[in-house]
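Design request, tokens follow.
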């Protein structure tokens, strides 16, 4: 059975592109049925359009509360009958109003190892910690999002990425993103076999 995926993004969408490519090549037995962004100028929406996938800027209404937005978003996504919702650079914390609609089906990718550098700017914070001599490596993880905790749900997969002595922030970011694309697809393959 081909899995139905909804991908939530806020930016460039390079991990979305990895998913689209893996679906197109048959590496992933899945179909992206909708790409939703909370930002109108997210380049990931262009990537979705180019792939012939529904692309939506899901705007927050004037005076709409966070929980009301999440309820409206969940109601919309429910109509798409998704098997999984993938957070691929979605930069909003989802409330239980959203998460309770999709138990054990919301998957997040985070550019840090479990219990390190939760939240935004994780790569920059890891690089600064390395420069201070506090760490020798960083990494990435793919995890479920059961609640409103930030980057701390049950880990599905993780990978250590060494920080090299000649790394710049840009070179480290590039290696992290390349590894993210592979680990995300591998993890989604495993999840899809359980449907």
């Amino acid at each position: 059975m081909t899995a139905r995926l909804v991908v939530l993004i806020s930016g460039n969408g390079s991990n979305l592109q990895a998913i689209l490519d893996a679906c197109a090549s048959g590496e992933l037995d899945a179909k992206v049925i909708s790409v939703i962004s909370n930002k109108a100028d997210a380049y990931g929406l262009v990537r979705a359009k180019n792939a012939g996938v529904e692309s939506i800027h899901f705007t927050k209404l004037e005076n709409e509360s966070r929980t009301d937005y999440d309820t409206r978003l969940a109601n919309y996504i429910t109509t798409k009958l998704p098997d999984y919702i993938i957070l691929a650079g979605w930069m909003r914390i989802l409330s239980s109003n959203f998460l309770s609609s999709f138990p054990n089906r919301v998957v997040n990718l985070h550019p840090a190892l479990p219990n390190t550098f939760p939240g935004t700017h994780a790569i920059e914070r890891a690089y600064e910690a390395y420069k201070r001599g506090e760490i020798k490596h960083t990494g990435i993880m793919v995890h479920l999002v059961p609640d409103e905790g930030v980057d701390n749900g049950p880990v599905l997969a993780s990978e250590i990425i060494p920080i090299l002595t000649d790394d710049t922030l840009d070179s480290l970011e590039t290696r992290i993103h390349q590894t993210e694309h592979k680990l995300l697809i591998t993890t989604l393959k495993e999840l899809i076999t359980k449907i």
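Comment from the thread starter after seeing the answer: thanks! The first helix runs from residue 14 to 25.
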